[in-house]
Design goal:
Layout (H helix, E strand, L loop, with lengths): L2 H31 L3 H4 L4 H9 L2 H7 L5 H9 L8 H14 L6 H16 L8 H25 L4 H29 L9 H13 L3 H8 L5 H9 L8 H19 L4 H14 L3 H7 L1 H24 L1
Helix pairs in contact: 1-3, 1-5, 1-6, 1-8, 1-9, 1-10, 3-9, 6-7, 7-8, 9-13, 9-16, 13-14, 14-16
Amino acid sequence: MLSRTAENLFWLARYVERAEYLARTIEATLRATALPDTYGGKTNEWESALLTAGVDDTFHEFHDEANEQTVVEFLSFSLNNPSSIRNCIENARLNSRSVRTALTSEMWDTINGAWLELQSTWRNGANTREDLAKFLRFVQETSLRFDGSAYRTMLRNDAYWFSRLGLHVERADNTARILDVKYHLLLPEEEHVGGPLDYYQWTSILRSVSALTAYHWVYRETLKPWLIADLLILNESLPRSLASCYGNLVRNLDQIGVAYGRQGPAQRHARGVRNRLEHSHMDDIFQRGLHEFIQEFIGDNNRLGDIISRQYLI
């Protein structure tokens, strides 16, 4: 496979995953801001949404205040935000066109149809809460259709494996960022862990990664920060957990290594991160510092993306 084709597949999957994550982040933030002031009025949830998306610095270059109108527009439709949902879908379609023959017809139809609907229906944004809800659902359904089409229709070859690499690198980064923001930016210093504000924020976080039902199935008790961290970091049965992402990254990199008859630094680095996750325990992570652990993970995950690019995509 040409390195350009592999790169387009890698970034196509990342853009689709990122668009869905942003839609879920906006949806969770809207739900949090709908709470009574008793629960939701002490923090700026819209500022936290920017932080989880990693675009707070870019946002403040164009806006003075983070509120519903400015943040929703910036994360959803702004051309000034390289990671906005609109730009993600347009970049995904651009990558899809470049590798049209490597995709199945179902995958192409999903991305091209989403792009066409974006041009015709959402070009001017969402003007009401109802419109916004429909838009966010449209983005999530696009991602689910694309992911399902890839899983059910692609040959298990290098095109599929590079696509999966992009998806899981992006997913791991998103999960880590939203967990880090919760612990260090959402909960005000005067609030006690386990208080009403804490409970509703944790519920919002779990909903944003589709893990609220999974939490109750696994732990069968009320929300507790250390158990939520355990679920999102170490529980490989949760598809969006860090452990699950790296289990999949190692498997797909190994498949690529076997197909090309050579292992490399990407395989070694991914195995190293996975091994650290497998041998980690929440007591040790909290004792060392959750923020420090997650920051180190984000750095390792970014390095893996760079290593994959140097090894295969350049």
